[in-house]
Specification:
Length: 361
């Protein structure tokens, strides 16, 4: 957020956004602060380098997709253990020594494919004991990093399918299968591009990171505030104007943000109080903002991660996804504006007073 926006957003809201998007820790020590600043910076520079033609022009640090995915995950795993506490009650003003240890081990396991790429390429399908140990530890640490950053549900879903993979013979007859050995399972999940280092991580490495970075830069430059002011200038004076402006501003913010949470906080901090001011109940004001912000993930060009997965799995260009997503996104926002208008008419609400510029003439 820009400095002006930060002053207007309550501290508890800023803390919530920081906790969800960049971790809940705010260490007081100089060294941890610098590490949590420079590691993301180096990660960003690496992604920019990988996405640019410079490695091929200069013939310096040219890496393939598998190596890039390995480095990408190593950065993410390190930050998951240093920026996110183990539990809600865990200390947030410093990083415990065990988290530093886990962060380094997780980063090593993730970067294992990059570090030993040539050795592993010379023995495909023949993992060593060290390969298997790294795979098991890396998979366990990845599940824990997922729990810290995204919560237990996604970790539980992944754990259920992992259990199904290894314990197939003990499942009910309808879904029973031969099962996979530890060697086969780890070779698939951690030591090849079929499991953890597969399509989803490739999309995150090659596309998602850059689009999120693009949106963050636009937001820091004040694009979100500009969209809100534009929406209110055009719709604020109409019947139920603040709600209509909330829908439009959320749609415009969705152009540069693929995060529904960031969209809600960016626009909702201003739109919800104004909707309540003209007569919308608090529940409906919140519902309008959430619906509009969630639809922001459907609004091109910066869409949710699912859009990038579609590109890889279906085999079409991202431009095609944008072309086909544009019309449904517009229709969804037109429908939301119409619903808001009906609600405003039903409750007999009016818009905000339109400012009148007076001159001395």
């Amino acid at each position: 957020m820009t400095a002006a926006r930060k002053q207007a957003v309550p501290d508890d809201v800023q803390d919530f956004v920081a906790e969800v998007e960049s971790g809940a820790r705010n260490p007081v020590g100089a060294v941890p602060k610098k590490i949590l600043f420079f590691v993301p910076l180096i990660w960003t520079l690496f992604q920019l380098w990988y996405a640019s033609p410079l490695p091929f022009i200069l013939n310096v640090f040219v890496i393939n997709d598998t190596e890039a995915r390995s480095i990408h995950l190593a950065f993410a795993m390190f930050l998951s253990y240093t920026a996110y506490p183990t539990f809600k009650s865990s200390p947030r003003e410093y990083i415990p020594i065990q988290d530093w240890f886990l962060a380094l081990v997780a980063a090593f396991c993730s970067a294992y494919l990059f570090i030993f790429y040539e050795q592993m390429s010379s023995r495909p399908g023949l993992p060593t004991n060290l390969d298997l140990v790294v795979g098991v530890i890396g998979l366990i640490l990845l599940l824990e990093a997922t729990r810290r950053a995204l919560g237990p549900p996604l970790m539980i879903v992944a754990l259920v399918f992992l259990t199904y993979t290894f314990f197939g013979p003990y499942m009910p007859e309808v879904i029973a299968h031969k099962g996979a050995s530890l060697v086969k399972g780890m070779s698939h999940y951690w030591l090849s591009t079929e499991g953890v280092f597969g399509v989803a991580l490739g999309v995150s490495t090659g596309m998602v990171f850059m689009f999120v970075l693009f949106g963050s830069l636009l937001e820091s430059a004040g694009a979100g505030n500009y969209f809100i002011r534009t929406a209110y200038a055009g719709l604020g004076h109409m019947r139920g104007g603040p709600a209509k402006a909330a829908v439009v501003s959320s749609g415009l913010t969705g152009l540069v943000s693929g995060s529904s949470i960031a969209n809600v906080v960016t626009t909702g901090t201003f739109t919800i109080p104004l909707m309540k001011k003209v007569g919308f109940p608090a529940e409906k004001a919140g519902a309008v903002e959430v619906a509009a912000s969630t639809n922001g993930q459907l609004t091109p060009p910066v869409m949710g991660a699912a859009a990038f997965l579609m590109v890889e799995y279906v085999g079409i260009s991202y431009v095609e996804v944008i072309k086909h997503a544009f019309l449904p996104a517009i229709i969804s926002y037109i429908a939301l504006v119409y619903i808001v208008h009906l609600e405003a008419c039903k409750m007999g609400l009016k818009g905000m007073e339109k400012p009148v510029t007076r001159t001395l003439a």
